[in-house]
């Protein structure tokens, strides 16, 4: 609670979190969920468009193919955006990258809004690709921006807000897609184009807030701008100690350019960091949380929930993840990263095992659908406790200023690639359980705790782990102004 009070006292930091989140990871969750409501309407529009062009209907399997392309272009765009995020963050800075990123949102909203009038389902496909690019950039730049702007005792809580806004976006997308709002058959272009609203909110608010102090000092060498940003972000707090720590980090990065993604895999000093990023990033995407949402509708129907009420139960699943993301944001600085990750994966292993049995027996035992429905909520709650948010902090805390953008490019590319790996069957959770176990074991044995430590302390501990038989980390020399890093 003390950390939360400090966050409230730093009003500018709180406003920065909101401004970055509403046009950042909120957009990721929102565009991920709003596409579910108009599924049948867009498929009908595709068929009608084809009929108007050719005079004959489009076969059902081709309609489904077009729909699959519309859905899959979102993670494909996210992959492009993740690869674009690193160069943008270095050339433009963290804040400007988030602002420029809204160009993709505006273009996509225009395509969505006029697609039906133009009679073009291709405009929907292109729009989904563009919002995917936007989500890929924001998913990487936002936690980088917030993690670099927060003091070390609040860094975990502030970076975790990326998960809070992503979960909030999922819930808002589910709510806006209700039949009573924009889920009407005639309103789907407006539903898809509604992503413009959070983009405009960010464009109106984020320019008034400061850039990342670390970027200003270490990348740009602008001490005065860094000091001004720190004073605005911290409020009445004394920033002399934090500025001295930033000066030390600048000295450590002297004469070093920004790393390229492939260089991270070649350098022994980054071996544990890269392994943590790949293993835990893969675990988050392959743990099966996205598939739970795919199962939810069918399980709710098996449990006897009326068809017209299923959409409200689905909103409950998104609300569970939002609740636990917020709780984790409050307790992360008290419990640490490792506890939340290990606890989340262990609980997911437990509930996923029960869920697998319940799915297999639901046709033969009357009360099994109710158990399966309970497991859905329990699994999502467990995912939100740690993996949903803590995993996104790793690239910020485990890598220094020169390697951080490249690390986010690697983790982002991995995350969006994993979104293609989906499948459905009664035993889909058997491989997922192994992923959860591996995530918990790796966290327990190989991931160092970063709670309350400076970036330099984290780097020194990682150096000792990467070179156990050699001397502890390098010695830092006097700070000097360095030129901007280049990718």
Question: Approximately how much helix is present in the residues?
Answer: over 70%
Count of discrete alpha- or pi-helical segments spanning 4 or more residues: 23
Our Rg estimate from Cα atoms comes to: 23 Å
Shape: globular
> Main sheet?
none
Determine the N-to-C terminus distance.
40 Å
β-strand percent reads under 5%
Helix and strand content put the structural class at mainly alpha
H/E topology pattern: HHHHHHHHHHHHHHHHHHHHHHH
Instruction: List unreliable stretches of 5+ residues.
Output: 423-427, 476-487
Rounded average pLDDT: 84
User: How many runs of DSSP E, i.e. beta strands?
Assistant: 0
Provide a compact summary of the structure.
The chain has helices at 2-9, 11-22, 25-33, 39-54, 60-91, 94-118, 121-149, 155-176, 188-193, 196-205, 213-219, 223-234, 240-252, 261-266, 271-286, 289-302, 310-335, 337-361, 368-385, 387-398, 404-418, 429-446, 455-466.
Descriptive overview:
- The chain is an all-alpha fold and 487 residues long.
- The protein is 75% helix and 0% strand.
- Helix 2 (11-22) packs antiparallel against helix 10 (196-205), helix 7 runs antiparallel to helix 21 and helix 8 (155-176) packs antiparallel against helix 17.
- The two termini are 40 Å apart.
- The model is unreliable at 423-427 and 476-487 (pLDDT under 50).
């Amino acid at each position: 609670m003390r950390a939360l009070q400090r966050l409230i006292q730093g009003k500018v930091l709180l406003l920065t979190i909101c401004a970055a989140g509403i046009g950042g990871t909120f957009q990721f969750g929102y565009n991920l969920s709003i596409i579910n409501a108009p599924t049948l309407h867009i498929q009908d529009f595709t068929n009608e468009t084809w009929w108007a062009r050719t005079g004959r209907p489009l076969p059902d399997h081709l309609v489904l193919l077009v729909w699959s392309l519309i859905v899959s272009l979102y993670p494909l765009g996210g992959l492009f955006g993740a690869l674009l995020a690193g160069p943008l963050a270095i050339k433009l800075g963290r804040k400007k990258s988030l602002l420029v990123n809204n160009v993709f949102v505006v273009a996509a909203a225009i395509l969505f809004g006029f697609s039906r009038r133009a009679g073009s389902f291709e405009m929907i496909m292109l729009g989904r690709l563009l919002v995917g690019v936007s989500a890929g950039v924001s998913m990487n730049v936002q936690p980088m921006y917030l993690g670099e702007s927060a003091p070390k005792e609040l860094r975990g809580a502030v970076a975790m807000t990326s998960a809070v806004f992503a979960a909030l976006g999922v819930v808002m997308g589910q709510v806006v897609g209700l039949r009573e709002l924009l889920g009407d058959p005639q309103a789907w272009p407006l539903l898809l184009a509604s992503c413009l609203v959070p983009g405009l909110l960010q464009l109106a608010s984020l320019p008034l807030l400061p850039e990342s102090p670390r970027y200003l000092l270490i990348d740009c060498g602008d001490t005065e701008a860094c000091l001004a940003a720190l004073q605005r972000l911290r409020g009445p707090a004394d920033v002399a100690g934090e500025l001295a720590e930033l000066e030390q980090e600048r000295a450590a990065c002297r004469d070093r350019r920004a790393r390229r993604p492939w260089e991270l895999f070649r350098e022994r000093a980054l071996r544990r960091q890269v392994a943590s990023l790949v293993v835990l990033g893969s675990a988050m995407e392959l743990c099966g949380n996205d598939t739970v949402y795919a199962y939810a509708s069918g399980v709710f129907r098996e449990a006897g929930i009326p068809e017209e009420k299923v959409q409200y139960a689905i909103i409950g699943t998104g609300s569970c993840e939002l609740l636990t993301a917020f709780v984790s944001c409050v307790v992360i600085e008290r419990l640490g990263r490792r506890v939340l990750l290990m606890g989340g994966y262990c609980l997911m292993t437990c509930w996923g095992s029960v869920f697998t049995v319940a799915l297999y027996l639901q046709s033969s035992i009357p009360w099994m659908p109710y158990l399966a429905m309970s497991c859905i909520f329990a699994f999502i709650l467990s995912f939100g406790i740690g993996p949903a948010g803590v995993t996104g902090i790793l690239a910020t805390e485990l890598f220094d200023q020169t390697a951080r953008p490249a690390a986010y490019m690697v983790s982002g590319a991995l995350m969006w690639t994993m979104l293609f790996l989906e499948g459905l069957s009664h035993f889909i959770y058997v491989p997922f359980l192994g992923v959860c176990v591996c995530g918990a074991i790796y966290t327990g044995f190989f991931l160092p705790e970063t709670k309350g430590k400076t970036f330099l302390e984290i780097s020194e501990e990682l150096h000792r782990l990467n070179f156990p038989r050699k001397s502890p980390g390098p010695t830092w020399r006097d700070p000097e102004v360095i030129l901007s890093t280049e990718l």
